[in-house]
Design goal:
It holds the Pfam family DUF1679. This is CHK kinase-like domain-containing protein. It is a single chain. With 376 residues, the protein is of the alpha+beta class. It has two domains: 126 residues, Phosphorylase Kinase, domain 1 (2-Layer Sandwich), CATH 3.30.200.20; 250 residues, Aminoglycoside 3'-phosphotransferase, Chain: A, domain 2. Helix 6 crosses helix 13 and helix 13 crosses helix 15. The relative contact order is 0.13.
């Protein structure tokens, strides 16, 4: 950190570091640092920071809940995820991303080559709020997030060289190692324990899920629906933003968790965003309005370059084809960990929140089924 801050100051005896599980993600721990700098010009140094640590052990915890699968075969995934996010923070300014909604990056360390876990040190932002996968977002906040999405997705349209600066498609690599058609189908079948009336729907979706054993077919559809590879967040949901109140209106302030950032199909970002962040009613009834808003904003961000889709109608069709490919497997990841996600929910609200979250997941499957029947 001395190198990052260009200082010879040292930590004093009142330095502190602590973490709380509630602030960590499912594959990382977050440590809060009070530096207590001693030396010259310490008034110019940050007094606090957030240090994010990603390890294979943290990943194992969530995989145990979803699949009960040993981590021996993917011990390098924690390092890969850490290094991928570190690469993002080291390059995001050069790529032209809007700095107003990206946390200030201090320094970091790669994992691998004898280092069991890396870290990323970021600015600690005060006065913010969190939202979680079980929450829903409304306008105008959702429109603000869509504008953020267009800023991300337009970068590689304006600067195609970006595609050479992210070497691996991390989500594709992780999913290929952890998930399969069988594991997805097995999880979805558990829904029938409490919802036996969904038997026909689950059978149709499980038949579609066979695509997860045919990576080249999945890639071909994603290339068909977006012929241009663009910069993607990879886990673009309501939970991966910090929020603040502006004139008593909740607005997104910072986009977080770039571990899954990759070069690929931006419609996968939109699928996650719409599915996890909107209520089932808005996902069904406001979807096309939000897609049209995104399309027009992306045209502005990418000007004077052409978009990957020749028309708004082709874009919406491409989204509909991509949605079940992304969300069938994502939903199968969320179903087993509903209770774990509620660790951030007040005890008095857990029962109601769990019910609403499951209703959201079932709404996602309804939309998946709609598009599977339409295109597949």
């Amino acid at each position: 950190m001395q190198k990052a801050f260009e200082t010879k100051a040292k930590f004093g005896q009142h330095r502190k570091a602590h973490f709380t599980e509630i602030h960590g993600g499912f594959v990382s721990q977050v440590v809060f640092i009070n530096f207590d700098w001693i030396g010259e010009s310490v008034e110019f140094l940050p007094k606090k920071a957030v240090v994010k640590v990603t390890t294979a052990q943290e990943l194992q915890k969530v995989v145990d809940q979803i699949l009960a699968k040993s981590s021996d075969e993917f011990s390098d995934i924690g390092a890969m995820i850490n290094n991928n996010e570190l690469n993002f923070y080291e390059n995001c300014k050069k790529w032209g991303l809007d700095e107003d909604w990206i946390t200030r990056f201090y320094c970091g360390r790669k994992a691998g080559h004898g280092i069991s876990c890396g870290y990323i040190a970021l600015e600690l932002i005060e006065g913010i709020e969190a939202r979680y996968q079980y929450d829903c977002v409304k306008e105008p906040a959702f429109l603000d997030i869509l504008k953020m999405a267009t800023n991300i997705h337009s970068r590689a349209i304006l600067n195609p060289d970006i595609v050479n600066e992210i070497s691996r498609n991390v989500p594709e690599t992780v999913y290929a190692q952890l998930f399969s058609a069988e594991s997805t189908q097995s999880v979805l079948n558990t829904i029938l324990i409490d919802e036996p009336q969904k038997k026909d729907q689950i059978e149709r979706i499980n038949k579609f899920a066979q695509i997860y054993d045919h990576l080249e077919r999945e890639r071909a559809i994603k290339m068909e629906t977006c012929p241009m590879k663009l910069l993607c967040h990879g886990d673009f949901t309501i939970a991966n933003f910090l929020w603040h109140q502006v004139d008593n209106v909740l607005k997104p302030k910072i986009a977080l968790d770039w571990q899954m950032c990759h070069i690929g199909n931006p419609l996968t970002d939109l699928a996650r965003l719409f599915a996890i962040s909107l209520s089932p009613e808005d996902l069904k009834n406001r979807r096309d309005f939000y897609l049209e808003f995104y399309f027009e904003e992306l045209k502005k961000e990418a000007f004077p370059k052409e978009l990957p889709w020749e028309s708004k109608e082709k874009f919406i069709e491409a989204f509909e084809k991509t949605f079940p490919i992304e969300m069938v497997i994502v939903t199968s990841m969320l179903v087993p960990i509903v209770d774990a996600m509620l660790r951030t929910c007040p005890e008095s609200k857990k029962e109601k929140t769990a019910k609403e979250f499951r209703r959201k997941l079932y709404g996602i499957l309804d939309v998946c089924e709609e598009f599977i029947e339409k295109f597949y």
